[in-house]
Amino acid sequence: MYKYLFGPVPSRRLGISLGVDLVPHKTCSLDCIYCECGQTTDFTVERQEYVPVDDVLEELDDYFQNHPDPEYITFSGSGEPCLNSRIGEVIEFIRKRKPLVSIAVLTNGTLFKQEEVRKALLGADLVMPSLDGASISTMQTINRPHASIDMEAYIEGLVSFRNEFQGKFALEIFILPGCNDTADELTSLKTAIERINPDVIHLNTLDRPGVVSNIRSATRRELEDIADFFKPFSVEVIAAAPERKGLNSYRSDIESAILETVLRRPCTLEDLATILGSHVNEINKYLGALEEADKIESVHQDRGLFYQAKNKFADN
Question: Which domain holds residue 282?
């Protein structure tokens, strides 16, 4: 069992991906209302070595010696990976040890105004920053940024990185109906997209419950209409996760353990990760599978988002 690696897990965009988590749960520069990992508890823009990178490198070395190569090694996890001041060293280590394995970084992009952050990511193959709104009011509604984050500097950082990065730049836009899908907001977003000039746009929406309860997913039709609006840019509407039973990384024992646990009492994502000794991102994949199978449901309570067995299943 690894502390800083999770998976490999099936990813909607990356196939079988080994995750690397470089910050503690939930350390971030944003507090997005849709975040599946929960509310931000360490709200910061300060870069430091949040987890011991030497230990991360030891875990990667052990993984490389004892497991087959994944399709991607992905920096994501339970916070903003670029907050770790040594992320560039980890990317360089992976590149030297596994030159044929692709490296991806999932980031909110808020730190790209810093040259050292942009430089640290140049060794990656794919970087996926996000931009959910081009106005400060929309950003405050959806992303609830750290007070020091400036909208124009944020976009300019994305532009600068796009100009410097030789790999694939995929801009993720998370659509929340009623928040960032108005004609004015989409027009502002398209203007920002024209400045950034990404290789591709990933249109995403709620797949799992977020931090707040009064938001909904965009429909496939709504996403396709927005994709048409963003033409001539290449736009991909993110589909459902791959069928987990057909993947080597799927483990029925983990799914069963989650189900048995929530049959006894409702649990948060963090509760389940602690009880089962697994990373929150890995647990998240199985929660999605159980919800899709209509075996569990999510409910908002005072302490956060809880998962419980559906009545018809609990009675069996």
Answer: 251-314
127 Rama sector, left if φ>0, alpha if ψ -120 to 50, beta otherwise: beta
Q: Is residue 245 part of a domain?
A: no
Q: What are phi and psi of 285, to 5 degrees?
A: -65, -40
Model confidence pLDDT, tens digit, residues 169-179:
999 999 999 99
In total, how many domains does the chain have? 2
Structure confidence by residue, pLDDT tens digits, 47-80 = 999 999 999 999 999 999 998 899 999 998 789 9
Separation between Cα atoms, residue 163 and residue 209, nearest integer Å: 35
Give the pLDDT band (50/70/90) at residue 10: low
Classify burial at 10, counting beta carbons within 10 Å of its beta carbon; exposed 0-12, middle 13-18, buried 19 or more. buried
Residue 195: per-residue pLDDT: 97
Single-letter code of the amino acid located at 260: E
Please write the tens of the pLDDT for every residue from 130-140. Answer: 999 999 999 99
What CA–CA distance (Å, rounded) separates 50 from 31? Answer: 18
pTM, 2 dp? 0.79
What are the strands of the beta sheet with 15-20, ordered from one edge?
Answer: 5-11, 15-20, 72-75, 102-106, 126-128, 168-174, 200-204, 235-237
| CA-to-CA dists, residue 212 to 164, 208, 299, 300, angstroms | 36, 11, 11, 8
Asked if 59 and 173 sit in the same domain, the reply is: yes
Cβ(23)–Cβ(78) below 8 Å: yes
